[in-house]
């Protein structure tokens, strides 16, 4: 009797954790520090050419991250040669210095908006490149090795 209750609970947990909105969701680890020349690349097959999708950059950070924001350069290469490049800034902390993002441990996961309502109107493989573009205040040159970022991800969700 106890075993069947445990099985039912496990099945309910697994079903509730299913993510029916995700079309693509992948992470890649960066080394102990994310070098400004290291580009994280994702190859994505177009889900379809009709429906709109929301795109996100996902970032996992630890307490070793010493900034309150994050600058990224995100480049999306379309199958037929078109390229979109965006320089993006995201808040990583609240005003009081508390981390944004989710997670019970020292690693926080941040789901950052990239683009809303994107239609993949070209068939084939899209390439998304993500590169850190951090600078310290008053510095002209960028941060060469960014510490505290452990993983970078890209996510595509169905719109509601």
From TrEMBL:
<dbReference type="InterPro" id="IPR020018">
    <property type="entry name" value="Motility-assoc_lipoprot_GldH"/>
</dbReference>
<keyword id="KW-0449">Lipoprotein</keyword>
<keyword id="KW-0732">Signal</keyword>
<protein>
    <submittedName>
        <fullName>Gliding motility lipoprotein GldH</fullName>
    </submittedName>
</protein>
<dbReference type="Pfam" id="PF14109">
    <property type="entry name" value="GldH_lipo"/>
</dbReference>
<feature type="signal peptide">
    <location>
        <begin position="1"/>
        <end position="22"/>
    </location>
</feature>
């Amino acid at each position: 009797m106890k075993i069947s209750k445990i099985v039912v609970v496990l099945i309910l947990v697994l079903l509730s954790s299913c993510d029916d909105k995700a079309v693509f969701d992948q992470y890649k680890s960066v080394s102990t520090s994310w070098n400004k020349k290291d580009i994280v690349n994702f190859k994505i097959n177009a889900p379809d050419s009709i429906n709109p999708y929301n795109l996100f950059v996902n970032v996992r950070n630890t307490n070793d991250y010493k900034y309150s924001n994050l600058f990224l350069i995100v480049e999306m290469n379309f199958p037929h040669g078109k390229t979109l490049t965006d320089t993006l800034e995201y808040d990583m902390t609240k005003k009081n210095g508390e981390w944004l993002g989710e997670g019970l441990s020292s690693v926080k996961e941040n789901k950052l908006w990239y683009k809303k309502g994107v239609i993949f109107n070209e068939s084939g493989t899209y390439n998304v490149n993500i590169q850190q573009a951090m600078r310290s205040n008053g510095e002209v040159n960028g941060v060469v090795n960014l510490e505290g970022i452990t993983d970078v991800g890209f996510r595509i969700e169905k719109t509601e």
